[in-house]
Amino acid sequence: MMRTYKKSHLLAGAAALVLLGGGGLYFAFGRSEAPTPTPVEGEAGHADDDHAEEAEAPEGVVRLSPEQIQAAGIQVVAVTRGGGAETRLAGRVETMVDARAAVGAVVGGRVERVLVAPGQTVRVGQALVSIVSGDAASLRAEADAAQAAYVAAEQAHGRDEELADQGVIARREAEVSHAEALSAQAAARAARARVSAAGSPNAAGRLSVSSPIAGVVSSVQVGPGGFVAQGGVVAEVTNPARVELVFNAPPQLAAEARPGARMRVTGPAGEFDAVITGVAANAGGQNADGQSSGATVIRARPEGGGLPPAGSAVSGALITGGQGGGVAVPTEAIQTLEGNTVVFVQIDGGFRAVPVLAGRQAAGRTEILRGLTGAERIASTNAFLLKAEMAKGEAEHGH
Fold this sequence. Notes:
By secondary structure, the chain is α+β, with helices and mostly antiparallel strands. 29% of the residues lie in helices and 33% in strands.
């Protein structure tokens, strides 16, 4: 049976933890306590009785102020809905699709200068190589000619409008010249677009091939004086900061994994939480018989932290088969007190030990089958300190 505990028990327990592990917990629990004044002779019995009545807490309750909770590092979290079995997945850290660029030349030409080297950081639009191209010069000439034709057609249309207003020519001729001006304008616009797509070469056909993303140059494929064909890769750029988690999952998991669901990931630097960003069914390619392998690919991003370098191996734990009406708590929140499995539910002025029936564990959380409604807030990190105080109080009551 759980017993009644005084705040003085908490102070004594914190002091004991100081001797065992560092000293900070004494101040966390005890700094707001003032020393009890020495009673006047003849009143000691009454003073002790009054103090005991004031310090007495309800059964199974540890009294703590918000300042003491914060100083002790006790984290209070909400009970979450869910539960289910744990499915382990093998994965890796990969560069995002939009974080890699194989930069190619739109037109063929001679490489005049190489402006970057492997390992160099570049920004969006920064020139990587300079090319001199006869094809690019032709495109620029066509654009200039198209622009000149448009100007001439627009001037002719203006003259025809004046003559038509004076009655020298028929209005129909002015309308025809208007249509010709519009056609020349469209041709000039298309020519300018081709020049822009080619890298905006000048009249001599000189242009720069620029990086479409910010990142680090991973390789350079050409050298000064060489020739690059149309579409040939001149350099590769990668953004090492844009990486994601990619897991291979069995086909049946595609129906249970959903974007926004959380999973626990173990990497080279330890464990962290991640959120699923995408689930692709039948994304595993084809097998030796040419049939779809049916594998599911799950992509995820970390919550509030970075990832190991691209290529690092990781493993993930995903909760599947859960019941929508169940509740789950962090596994570290569950403690054993006097042979009972309990969690410490936050109340006004402290915490109450509430017996629960624990179910399955998955991804750092434990399913609660009975004892909680799902609306509570409970002690998670450092909940063992509350257990230690109650256990110590029980020992003192036994003497």
